[in-house]
Amino acid sequence: MNNLFPIFLKLENLHTLIVGGGYVGLEKITAVINNSPEAKVTLVAPEIGTEIREIAVSNSLITLVERKFEETDLEAKDLVIVATNDRVENERIKALAAGRHLLCNVADTPAHCDFYLSSVVQKGNLKVAISTNGMSPTMAKRLKEVLNEALPENLEVAMEQLKAVRDMLKGDFAHKVDELNRITSVLVDKKN
Ligand SMILES: C[C@@]1(CC(=O)O)c2cc3[nH]c(cc4nc(cc5[nH]c(cc(n2)[C@H]1CCC(=O)O)[C@@](C)(CC(=O)O)[C@@H]5CCC(=O)O)C(CC(=O)O)=C4CCC(=O)O)c(CCC(=O)O)c3CC(=O)O
Ligand SMILES: NC(=O)C1=CN([C@@H]2O[C@H](COP(=O)(O)OP(=O)(O)OC[C@H]3O[C@@H](n4cnc5c(N)ncnc54)[C@H](O)[C@@H]3O)[C@@H](O)[C@H]2O)C=CC1
């Protein structure tokens, strides 16, 4: 049973702190920017890898802070991703974040995460997020590849057309729902 509650965040409205600038820090900032190119991100670490520096050079919304984490880094942040190679420090940062009611992900310790990052299938406006409840990130990555192949490319056109119908439909909410269900029933009708 997977009890995680999935939501889609508008990271451009939030300020995300990433602690750690190594391999995992790079993975996490890449995931953030690929999904939300206008995300406001501050990354703090004494050693910041060249790939992260390159990403930051071309993105003015990313601030790099080249030193160890300090508690004041949590000020005015909404979301925290902790990815240092110091487990004890990761745990301390998580506790400080919790003290401020900040949502926190600790890359190497699922038990200390308030949220997990997901594997993401993107087709235009469609986005499918996958979680294995932390059981196997590799399975999530593979399923992403399977779904990416399986989902048709023309979904974007279908979504645009449905949006046009949706914008056009007058009447009450129940009527709209009925009409949209009727038009899209072909998607779920069993063959024969
Ligand atoms: C719990 C979670 C917390 C979190 O990080 O948010 C977590 C935890 C851990 N990951 C570990 C390892 C790996 N993680 C990946 C990859 C991804 N990990 C991601 C998410 C999550 N990873 C969350 C659960 C997601 C879920 O519910 O399924 C993805 C989906 C999203 C992302 O990170 O952006 C991204 C795939 C993106 C994509 O490509 O689609 C790979 C594979 C690879 O890199 O190719 C490996 C190596 C192989 C392996 O172990 O499977 C370890 C052991 C560390 C160690 O051994 O030291 C832990 C800690 C532990 O499990 O104890
Ligand atoms: N969830 C996941 O997907 C995975 C998690 N991990 C775990 O993530 C952790 C980090 O791994 P890597 O990025 O490969 O390590 P790394 O050695 O490449 O980078 C560590 C980074 O943490 C920074 N750092 C160390 N102390 C700090 C402090 N006090 N404040 C701020 N930054 C600090 C370093 O400067 C460096 O930038 C490890 O504990 C590892 O077990 C590893 C693989 C996958």
Automatic annotation (TrEMBL):
One family name in Pfam for this protein: Sirohm_synth_M
GO biological process: siroheme biosynthetic process
Class of the enzyme per the UniProt entry, highest EC level: oxidoreductase
Keyword Protease: no
Record's catalysed reaction(s): precorrin-2 + NAD(+) = sirohydrochlorin + NADH + 2 H(+)
Keyword tags: NAD, Oxidoreductase, Porphyrin biosynthesis
Protein name listed in UniProt: precorrin-2 dehydrogenase
The organism's taxonomic lineage, starting at the top: Bacteria, Pseudomonadati, Bacteroidota, Cytophagia, Cytophagales
